[in-house]
Amino acid sequence: MESAALSVLVQQLRAAGEVTRARILALLAHGELSVGELAQVLNQSQPRLSRHLKFLTGAGLVERLPEGAWVFYRLPVEGRARALVDTLNAAIDPEDADIRRDRVRLGEVKAERAGAADEYFSRVADDWDKLRALHYSEADIEKAVLAAAGAGPFDLVVDFGTGTGRMLALFAAKARRVEGIDLSHQMLTVARSKLQEAGVGNASVRHGDATAAPYPDDCASLVIIHQVLHFLDDPARALNEAARVLKPGGKLVVVDFAPHTLEHLRMDHAHRHLGVSEEDLERWGEKAGLAVKSAKTFRSPDGDKGIAVTVWSAECQNSTKRSAA
Asked: pLDDT tens-digit profile of 257-282?
């Protein structure tokens, strides 16, 4: 009698055993993508790709993540299905013409997305703090951030996606040194100006990516990720970087929107995701070697028309952080 495990394996091999579906698995190895982005890369219709994705999802080789009007797809995070996909992807010739072409198109899609985000941040840089305070009291959030971080004093505080440098100004008096990174040169210009106006002498900002931070291992006692994760393709990478940069026992404070349904924020404000759930943050943190210690959610005074905001505190675990690298 055929075993259940063998039957599942055969189903998975059948699902992967088609050219377009094999190309999808290869693309998703570079991070989660929406069906529209996959259609753009593969130059195929969305209905056709949806059928392929349904086949892969049914076999457990791909996970489907509905988010508002969009649907994202990713490879399984772990387990036998992920091990099988990794094995199959490793067997693909990276110089295959279709695979090479897909990588080029994926790069173009990501560059187009990054360009749109950069244009947005340049356009709103001067009013960034006002935009972030539209749906909640910024003063209350800042009090919660200070409480989540603890009393200090801190040695080095690093702010991923520093924007106008507000978090640097907030922590300057509690730290020997505060530094911020941001991909937007316009934002960095605004941050330098604001920090100078505020007379913050122990702060600096530099160009840098929250998913590939320009800092050595174990250098910071506090990392802040304030309203950044919902802009990222792969928020888990930012948490991995925070864990890498933090000293053992160091603190991470994350501020982000709770899950919501305001779809217009994708186009109007370059949001990649409609908020961050507590379950996702805890899962990403655990894999990175970060133990989430607390979470406080601020409900919008506008009810369902507004957006709730959550402030998380996490601690870097010395025994597990290296396993996430």
From this structure: 888 877 777 777 667 888 899 999 99
* DSSP for residue 18: S
Instruction: Please give the residue that has the higher pLDDT: either 10 or 126.
Output: 10
Task: Please give the structure tokens belonging to residue 17.
Answer: 């055993």
Region class of 121: left (phi > 0), else alpha (psi between -120 and 50), else beta? alpha
CATH topology of domain 4-92: Arc Repressor Mutant, subunit A (1.10.10)
Strands 246-257 and 309-316: antiparallel
The set of residues, in sequence order, having a beta carbon less than 8 Å from that of 225 and lying 6+ positions away, is 160, 161, 210, 238, 239, 242, 252, 253, 254, 255, 256
Q: Which tokens sit at 26?
A: 């290869």
- pLDDT, mean over the chain: 85
What is the residue extent of each domain of the chain? 4-92, 127-324
**CATH number given to 127-324:** 3.40.50.150
Task: For 99-121, write each residue's pLDDT tens digit.
Answer: 999 999 998 887 776 666 566 65
- Residue 2 has a pLDDT of 61
Contact, 210 vs 235, CB < 8 A? no
Q: Which of 171, 312, 295 minimizes the C-alpha distance to 253?
A: 312
Q: What pLDDT score was predicted for residue 323? A: 43
Quote the CA–CA distance of 248 and 229 in Å, as a whole number. Answer: 23
Are the beta carbons of 310 and 296 closer than 8 angstroms? Answer: yes
Do 264 and 277 contact (CB within 8 A), yes or no?
Answer: no
Cβ count near 186 (within 10 Å): 17
CA dihedral (317, 318, 322, 323) positive or negative:
negative
In terms of phi and psi (left: phi > 0; alpha: psi -120 to 50; beta: otherwise), the region of 165 is: left
State which H helix or E strand residue 309 sits in: strand 309-316
Q: What pLDDT band is residue 324 in, cutting at 50, 70 and 90? A: very low
220 within 8 A of 157, measured Cβ to Cβ? yes
Can you tell me the distance from the alpha carbon of 302 to that of 158, in angstroms, rounded to the nearest whole number?
Answer: 32
